[in-house]
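Record 1 of the preview.
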Amino acid sequence: MAKKSKKQQQSGGTPATVALTAAGVAYTVHAYDHDPSHPSYGEEAAEAMGVSPERVFKTLVADVDGALTVAVVPVAGQLDLKALASAAGGKRATMADPALAERTTGYVRGGISPLGQRKKLPTVLDASATSHETICVSAGRRGLEVELSPKDLTALTDAILAPIGRA
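->
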């Protein structure tokens, strides 16, 4: 995987790619033409990149006992809110208000990245990520994904690894 140079990241980088570059982490950016009529941002990304949906992860923002928490799960499945609450040390989780998620992370829905958020939120990464050498997550805008190792994503987000996804 190639790292982006400072010039490349300044000329079109997102907070996510800037964070990756600053951390010295190897990553690859995948861009594709986003179709606003597609029913699923994540499935669209997997199809456009020709990557298995098990390796493409969506970033969701949930409310766990009053605290916003990021959940990163494969686009091939769904978030198990009960499992997320348990992994985050809470009792109850619900999906966060989309406008609040956008304001807090600094990203738009469909482009929320677990990296480079305006306010760093507690993060839980589905344990299935570790079965892949690399995974793809949003690079901070619709039509832009970043591929990196799950180990690097875990380290950069201080993520908890837990089985929070379900088929």
